[in-house]
């Protein structure tokens, strides 16, 4: 199957019929819900809001579960869920409120599979590559392992503007890899649905060592000329590839803007998003052997972008 045919097939299957919002009742989780609701309304999605109580480790042995009236953690969660369910802002979407107990990612993964979830939404509160996300290692696992796209609202993202209806500018950042290929149909569909400006971005590394080779030991003018040739060739190739992403029948409000940057990846993506006032960043999240390890590598691209972005980030694992 050609790349274009594969893209068209993926495009036809894109949709947000079932949305799952994970909450720990924190301010960042409330912000995540605020971003999820316009998507739910626009796509007419069925929405579930879930809080997962992690298993407790106790110093003493208890035979069987605690009596309900003594399980303080569950009672508090039930009160918070009741408060959330009573909020007027979510009444119109008729959410399915779920309260579960167990290993958090295991429970979320089970719900995603059982309900055939199309989108997982969660918030983060950590800053920097070494900080945990709001749901701890669970969110880190979700970014890499979820079988559906994940919309993450980071610590720098403000509350959505009530005057705005949907996303107005969407930035799609690609490395042309498998995860990016899976992510692009979502960027395109959202841009069409929200009548948003679509920006296509590919970042070139500032200085490829493989190209410099023996020039590293030669006069600077040789290295500069070699690098300039490489950048010019790669820039043209990137522009061509970006231009070929959008199928002829796409129903966009305007021609996508093509941007080829020359910077380190997180800084380049974040800088481009800031320059164009992006309302959403869409990107692939490449699978690795250990999701937890990947999230704690200081240069882990997806994690750094989410922690610093001023807008939500939609990731698709691949």
Provide structural commentary.
The protein has a single domain, classed as 3-Layer(aba) Sandwich (Rossmann fold). The radius of gyration is 22 Å and the shape is elongated. It has a ten-stranded mixed β-sheet, with helices on both faces. The chain has eleven helices and ten strands. The longest helix has 24 residues. The protein is of the alpha/beta class and 318 residues long. Helix 1 crosses helix 6 and helix 9 packs parallel to helix 11. Helix 2 links the parallel strand 1 and strand 2.
The geometry reads as elongated
Q: Name the CATH architecture.
A: 3-Layer(aba) Sandwich
Helix % is 40-55%
Overall tally of domains: 1
Determine the number of helices (DSSP H or I, runs of at least 4 residues).
Answer: 11
- As residue ranges, the low-confidence spans are 127-135, 211-217, 290-299
Looking at CATH, which topology would you report?
Rossmann fold
Largest sheet data: 10 strands, mixed
Number of strands: 10
Q: Residue-averaged pLDDT, rounded?
A: 81
Order of helices and strands: HEHEHEHEHEEHEHHEHEHHE
CATH class: Alpha Beta
How far apart the termini lie comes to 18 Å
**How much strand content do the residues show?**
15-25%
Kindly name the structural category. Answer: alpha/beta
Q: Which value, in Å, is the CA radius of gyration? A: 22 Å
């Amino acid at each position: 199957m050609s790349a274009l045919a594969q893209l068209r097939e993926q495009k036809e299957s894109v949709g947000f019929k079932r949305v799952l919002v994970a909450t720990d009742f924190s301010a960042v989780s409330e912000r995540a819900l605020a971003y999820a609701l316009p998507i739910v309304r626009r796509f007419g999605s069925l929405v579930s809001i879930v809080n997962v109580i992690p298993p407790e480790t106790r110093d003493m042995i208890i035979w069987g579960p605690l009596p309900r009236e003594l399980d303080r953690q569950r009672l508090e969660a039930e009160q918070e869920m009741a408060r959330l369910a009573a909020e007027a802002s979510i009444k119109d979407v008729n959410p399915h409120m779920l309260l579960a107990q167990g290993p958090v990612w295991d429970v979320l993964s089970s719900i995603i599979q059982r309900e055939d979830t199309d989108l997982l939404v969660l918030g983060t509160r950590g800053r920097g590559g070494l900080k945990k996300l709001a749901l701890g290692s669970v969110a880190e696992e979700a970014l890499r392992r979820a079988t559906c796209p994940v919309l993450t609202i980071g610590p720098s993202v403000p509350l959505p503007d009530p005057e705005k209806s949907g996303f107005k500018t969407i930035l799609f950042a690609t490395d042309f890899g498998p995860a990016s290929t899976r992510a692009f149909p979502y960027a395109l569909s959202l841009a069409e649905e929200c009548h948003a400006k679509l920006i296509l971005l590919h970042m070139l590394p500032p200085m490829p060592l493989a190209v410099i080779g023996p020039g590293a030991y030669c006069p600077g003018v040789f290295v500069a000329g070699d690098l300039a040739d490489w950048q010019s060739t790669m820039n043209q190739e990137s522009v061509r590839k970006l231009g070929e992403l959008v199928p002829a029948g796409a129903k966009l409000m305007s021609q996508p803007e093509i941007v080829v940057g020359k910077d380190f990846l997180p800084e380049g993506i974040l800088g481009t998003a800031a320059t164009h006032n992006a309302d959403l960043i869409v990107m692939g999240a490449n699978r690795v052997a250990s999701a937890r390890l990947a999230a704690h590598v200081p240069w882990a691209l997806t994690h750094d972008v989410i922690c610093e972005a001023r807008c939500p980030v939609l990731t698709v694992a691949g």
